[in-house]
Amino acid sequence: MAVATLTLEQLCINSIRFLAIDAVEKAKSGHPGLPMGAAPMAFVLWDQFMRFNPKNPKWFNRDRFVLSAGHGCMLQYALMYLAGYDSVTLDEIKNFRQWGSKTPGHPENFETPGIEVTTGPLGQGIANAVGLAIAEAHLAAKFNKPDLTLVDHYTYVILGDGCNMEGISGEACSLAGHLGLGKLIALYDDNHISIDGSTDIAFTEDVSKRFEAYGWHVLHVQDGNTDLEGIARAIAEAKSVTDKPTLIKVTTTIGYGSPNKANTAGVHGAALGEAEIKLTRENLGWTYDPFVVPDEALAHTRKAIERGASYEAEWQETWAQYKTKYPQEAAEFDRLLSGKLPEGWDKVLPTYKPEDKALASRKHSEICLNALAPVLPELIGGSADLTHSNLTELEISGNFQKGAYENRNIHFGVREHGMGAICNGIALHGSGLIPYGATFLVFTDYMRGAIRLSALAECGVIWVMTHDSVALGEDGPTHQPVETIASLRAIPDLTVIRPADGTETSGAYKVAIENARKNRPTLLALSRQGLPNLAGSSIEGVGKGGYTVIGCDGTPDLILIGTGSEVNLCVKAAEQLAAEGKKVRVVSMPSTELFEAQDAAYKESMLPKAVTKRLVVEAGTTFGWHKYAGSEGDILGIDTFGASAPGGVCMEKFGFTVDNVLSRAKALLG
Amino acid sequence: MAVATLTLEQLCINSIRFLAIDAVEKAKSGHPGLPMGAAPMAFVLWDQFMRFNPKNPKWFNRDRFVLSAGHGCMLQYALMYLAGYDSVTLDEIKNFRQWGSKTPGHPENFETPGIEVTTGPLGQGIANAVGLAIAEAHLAAKFNKPDLTLVDHYTYVILGDGCNMEGISGEACSLAGHLGLGKLIALYDDNHISIDGSTDIAFTEDVSKRFEAYGWHVLHVQDGNTDLEGIARAIAEAKSVTDKPTLIKVTTTIGYGSPNKANTAGVHGAALGEAEIKLTRENLGWTYDPFVVPDEALAHTRKAIERGASYEAEWQETWAQYKTKYPQEAAEFDRLLSGKLPEGWDKVLPTYKPEDKALASRKHSEICLNALAPVLPELIGGSADLTHSNLTELEISGNFQKGAYENRNIHFGVREHGMGAICNGIALHGSGLIPYGATFLVFTDYMRGAIRLSALAECGVIWVMTHDSVALGEDGPTHQPVETIASLRAIPDLTVIRPADGTETSGAYKVAIENARKNRPTLLALSRQGLPNLAGSSIEGVGKGGYTVIGCDGTPDLILIGTGSEVNLCVKAAEQLAAEGKKVRVVSMPSTELFEAQDAAYKESMLPKAVTKRLVVEAGTTFGWHKYAGSEGDILGIDTFGASAPGGVCMEKFGFTVDNVLSRAKALLG
């Protein structure tokens, strides 16, 4: 076909396709197939429906767009360039997948303004989108007034076969259907091809029927390659159904336009190659050089700038009225968006004395959450069906349900991975909400994909993980964490805190809330069993990660380092050793990450290099503790799986008694 | 009702219920609700359908039973006691959830003969069952003859709402539907209650419709509490449909029989309490003391012993005929079941010289898999839709598909967690198959629940994980493992191996296959990029976990410790240091677990305590390496997330160059 025959829409769509083709070719790396096939639906969505302001990517009331099939990121970069985002210039597109570029190999919200969430690991994006839609629904229910609609946006997703095969997407979409999140609209790029070839080899289920079973509104655009009106009609219909999320199955051809590679796995994840690109240009009537976008196409797509300014201006007007009419709510809304915490918020966190009742740290967590709930209305979250074991219910609120989106207790169901990504999405809504998600510590294994992303993608989430050691008892080794805390400590930028008592739990929440406001996740490892309150524990100490709970005169003969429930064993042992004339220091180390963040002088003052007799005590793997035990030190840990028995029996059998700490300590002292 | 009115079936069913009630009450811990509600379906299944031999729990051709809702384990223990398994005596039931008992808090195959798989972490069991059914289908296709059916059993599952909410079950069941595993029959205990309360609060999807969408045959028993005939009819109908797995939704009442707690979350996971137990006894007309089973009930259920002996005898007769008629196949079948490896199997593993081409270790893995495939027909597996990236295809075989179950290449789809549990199930079929599952190393995060269970439940699986560091390049931080290897090393009883070159990859497979035969899983971390073949590498060295690849005369001044792709950097740096007159040893440490298993003398010989100048080099987190670096040593690692750029650029930017190794080494040498 000749270029003259291309309509304006075709020019725009092909601009997307060839920006993707050319960028992948230049990088010799990337995924051209999805952008080529999904360009029409993406163009229609961005051109006719999406409300956003390219010059202010953080404008609050924008529609959120999530490319769940993150490998197709050149689609999103092309859309952003065409729409006029400052972050994605033509130079950045030419620099696709290179060191320091704004166009990394998968969309990264922390690198590229305008990208909402980090995708690539399949299924995360659609689950994040459920979180974005929950955040919108919650804020709308909370702030909108009969006469003024302050919060009102859609969350749009493009997802592929890969996302739909992942369990996490099923979890999140089942919940989205249950919650009736009507402003969530997902376009399913149904291209029948995954990396291994035709989806026929592994994926022949009826996806539409499955989503109907979840309670979604489901539509089908049979020709997603050329039927732009059909796509537009479907999106419009999706918007009209307000009590259910919508899945629009859009049947497309992966690598559309490539004469020899379209509809093959070969076009999924590799550059087309010079020869095939030439043929594709011919086939699509594309006479432009690499990275050249026709003027008329750019002129059209850049209208997004003007549109966006006007959308935002309109909203600013509403906001101005809102501030006048509802100053109290406006102040709260403003505070949330600013990410500021209320003055003195942390004063509600309790501290404890040794004579106070020994409670489980999960119980202290419940006390903290409920103390914070009235002060921090941004706290919203819940458990993966373990609410009364994790103790995460906010008493002042009801359940977040269809028709009750103003509530703050979310019942995630037994869907840990979905919960994780949903919490990430709530955080990345960027509206000041502080989400928390809870399950048993050992089941972080089910949601590790999302926990890792919370750290990478800078999500201010609190992970409330209870039943933190073999001391949980009878449920046995499938439920008893052993290596779990170590495996979480290894994740960069995740702060793991295992508090020793009530005061330390308060300290942990202080850190967690402050972290959340710095867009950093915190994971709390909390006990099932009661923990005595220590004389030496402190909120400030937790902030430093490691600190002295029992000191001694002069240089210690021995340092005992404990975390969580084992600090008390160290304290008891130290008291006895002191009575025997030994100079013993006990360092409570609730968070190695926070300790590492202190300056060298502080660290040396806590763990002097000269004191080589050190005993670490933690009811978990020894893995990772040699750094603090040192070559001459010892570690009392558990390097096997646990066992089913009452918690006290487990602790004793695995050696977590004062006597055993004493005997290991004495062995070191010689 | 009076006891006289109880039918024999009711006596049996109530025996199950009260064994569960009484055991949980005695332990003051456990889950009575599921056994009370699911007892009728379980009784009908075990009484009328299941073919097994209680006196030989390992009889090959038994039907497999999986309690996916593992918290209800007292159901299974009661069934096993009633059926006459030696492992579960009345004393063991009285010892429920106590240290050293055969009746731990969740079913554990490694503790209790007769338990097929370890469940408790929800969703794993149903996914294991898919693996069991795959194993059966494969062996049947391979060994059965038109005149002799050697392999022919069903896999039955009881699963609950929790299992059905978990993404892993969706992944595995979608694949089971695709594969048309007709001998997989799952009974869904539809009791509308999960821990947080009514499933209405989080789980209102249409489960039956979802399974239909997966391609399952779906049935519904409306009154699972009393309609025993309906249950039996449904199971019979399920058996009659041979080309689809069947889900039988059995609507029940959790805690059936308890006047005040039935149909509440309160009965899910806590003892009923003395008063309620009394009322339940009255309500169900149960006049027997705790732990007393009526004689007529026991007499009936113990008929399973005679039935089982006759089932096995019948099969032994078939087997005898088979051995006569098909001696070659019989010998192979026999070898598989014995768990013996063929003589000299490991001779096919290649070794390499420095002049051989530098290939990626994932490529070497492909070479090993394909060298082993003809020698070890028990190798069966595949990738989660990354076959041509993980390089896991066995060239001598086709795809395992409906109608082609004799094949060995399984396409798992983008379903990592499901793949993990399916591989565990194949291993736990106990028929000598060695399953392997593959994805990118970073996505072990998606399947960690199953990897952990592979170690705990003693599954001889090989996890083939490729793209093992930031050197994978452009895909960026979402795809680049940093903390991943450390987090896997922390798992007890999992052998993690990161080979440095071709010879070490062969060594890794030697260990992995031998581990599999000892029911231990092995995880291989393999490179995307080419690795030079080292002069000093060896298969034997890998077996020891750490060994010298470059030595020196006398006591070294410095030891460089490297793994995988970084060993070559160490070698190059050592050569240069040697040229400068330094005495340097390079230890390749492909597996810290294997190294730890060596005796103290060997470990001291490799890493003498006296040599404190040590530099560890690994393109991953430093977490966990201080044990080997020692207090005076140094670690060149990556404690941040990666970045999107070509692999070589990434390695350079993160400091993985010979120059940087040299400079860190010289800083240590002073």
Automatic annotation (TrEMBL), chains A, B:
UniProt-listed Enzyme Commission number(s): 2.2.1.1
A GO biological-process term: pentose-phosphate shunt
Site entry: Important for catalytic activity: H31, H268
Keyword presence, Isomerase: no
Enzyme class per UniProt: transferase
InterPro entries (UniProt xref): THDP-binding (IPR029061), Transketo_C/PFOR_II (IPR009014), Transketolase-like_C_2 (IPR055152), Transketolase-like_Pyr-bd (IPR005475), Transketolase_bac-like (IPR005478), Transketolase_BS (IPR020826), Transketolase_CS (IPR049557), Transketolase_fam (IPR033247)
Annotated positions binding substrate: H31, H268, R362, S389, H467, D475, H479, R528
GO CC aspect terms: cytosol
Cofactor comment: Binds 1 Mg(2+) ion per subunit. Can also utilize other divalent metal cations, such as Ca(2+), Mn(2+) and Co(2+).
Domain (Transketolase-like pyrimidine-binding) ranges: 359-533
NCBIfam families referenced in this protein's UniProt entry, alphabetically: tktlase_bact
Oligomeric and partner information: Homodimer.
Protein name, per record: Transketolase
